[in-house]
Specification:
- This protein is α/β, with parallel strands linked by helices and about 350 residues long.
- It is about 40% helix and about 20% strand.
- It has a domain of about 230 residues: Rossmann fold.
- The protein is built from eleven helices and 15 strands.
- The strands form four sheets. Strands 3-2-1-4-5-7-12 form a seven-stranded parallel beta sheet, sandwiched between helices.
- Helix 1 packs parallel to helix 2 and helix 9 packs across helix 11.
- It is globular and about 60 Å long.
- It starts with a strand and ends with a helix.
- About 45% of the residues are buried.
- Bound molecules: uridine-diphosphate-N-acetylglucosamine.
- Uridine-diphosphate-N-acetylglucosamine binds next to helix 6, helix 7 and strand 9.
Length: about 350
């Protein structure tokens, strides 16, 4: 039996993707340093996936920092001995705060880039050449009209984005060094929000979040008094920033189809946007959240945030054509499911 190694598998997108993998019948090994997530999610994933007790060995967890090449190597060897060879990797493990990345660039280059290099070395040494990498729309930086195709020039404006684009570059060079060997998918996420529809797993960042959706949840649960809206004079429909919010389950589903595509086709490297192709403004997001959850989200307009773009929306036609993937869930479902996850923890 083959194993899918999931780095960062206890994090937000990682945990939802692990659930999908288990539901699809895969054997998975999750590694995570747990610097920004908790191991507790494992039992929830097992329960939700409804795997029978005797199949418990389909999911394994090890606390491991991807920069620890020795430990990674031992993990690959151990799985081989157990007759559960690691044949593909879904690589989520990374630090992801934009503001922190500009404050502590070395930490970000080390964890994200050195960590990925260490993982790639170990994969090479252990004859594993299939990789799905968590990339981000943030690598596009400023664009003319905010509608982004995979061919849009890459020009990240913060350290976090630069680490992601550098990894894509490394993966491109690696692929071209042995084009008949590697199968690689760089999945460029837009703004994943929401939670599993059961409300049992969701986004659970340590500390104060910077992203809008977890902040809306905090306002809704009265942990903070109001939402600060960064700017109201952008060149957008209502002056507030427009983003392509996508349900985390649709993003996870994107990994399933990418893995299937890579394993069934010739070695290749692909870059694919995972977004809905629909733009939602901050005011629209607040209003939809209020409506579907019957809540009030107080807000105040404040100065624009440095480095924010007016609009960032995916052209997702490549994902539709190549992977036969299209997002299914609405922005209403994202708001409902995200809030359900919070309500379950009251
Ligand atoms: C941010 C990151 C991006 C990262 C992405 C997903 C920045 C500059 N960009 O993107 O690199 O890939 O998260 O993790 O941080 N907003 C408010 N008030 C808030 C927070 C956000 O008005 O308190 C607005 C923003 O101005 C923006 C929208 O909400 O218009 C979405 O913001 P956010 O959730 O932080 O995502 P991005 O800015 O798209």
């Amino acid at each position: 039996m083959n194993t899918v190694l999931v780095t960062g598998g206890t994090g937000f997108i990682g945990s939802h993707t692990c659930l999908c993998l288990l539901e699809m019948g895969f054997y998975i090994l999750i590694i995570d340093s747990n610097v920004n997530s908790s191991k507790k999610v494992l039992n929830k994933i097992k329960k939700l996936s409804k795997i029978p007790k005797e199949d418990d060995n389909r999911v394994d967890f090890l606390k491991c920092d991807i920069r620890n090449e020795d430990l990674l190597n031992r993990i690959f060897k151990k799985k081989l001995e157990e007759n559960k060879k690691i044949t593909s990797v879904i690589h989520f493990a990374a630090l992801k705060s934009v503001s922190e990345s500009d404050q502590f660039p070395l930490k970000y280059w080390d964890t994200n880039v050195s960590g990925t290099i260490s993982l790639l070395k170990v994969m090479t040494a252990n004859d594993c050449h299939t990789l799905i990498f968590s990339s981000s729309a943030t690598i596009y930086g400023y664009s003319k009209d905010g509608f982004l195709k995979e061919s849009t020039p890459i020009s990240p404006i913060n350290t976090y984005g630069k680490t992601k684009s550098t990894i894509e570059q490394i993966l491109n060079e690696l692929f071209h060094s042995q084009p008949n060997l590697w199968r690689i998918a760089n999945l460029r996420y837009f703004n994943p929000i929401g939670a599993h529809p059961s409300g049992f797993i969701g986004e659970d960042p340590f500390g104060m979040p910077n992203n809008i959706f977890p902040l809306i949840i905090k306002v809704a649960s009265r942990e903070i008094d109001y939402l600060k809206i960064f700017g109201n004079d952008y060149d957008t429909k209502d002056g507030t920033g427009v983003r392509d919010y996508i349900h985390v389950m649709d993003v996870s589903e994107g990994h399933m189809v990418a893995l299937d595509f890579l394993t069934k086709n010739e070695p290749q490297i692909i870059q694919v946007n995972l977004g809905t192709g629909k733009g939602t403004s901050v005011l629209e997001l607040i209003s939809i959240f209020e409506k579907v959850n019957n809540l009030k989200i107080p807000y105040k307009f404040v100065e624009k945030r440095k480095g924010d773009v007016a609009k960032c929306v995916a052209d997702n036609s490549l994902a539709q054509k190549l992977l036969k993937w299209s997002p299914k869930k609405t922005i209403e479902e994202m708001c409902q499911d995200g809030w359900k996850w919070k309500e379950k923890r009251f």
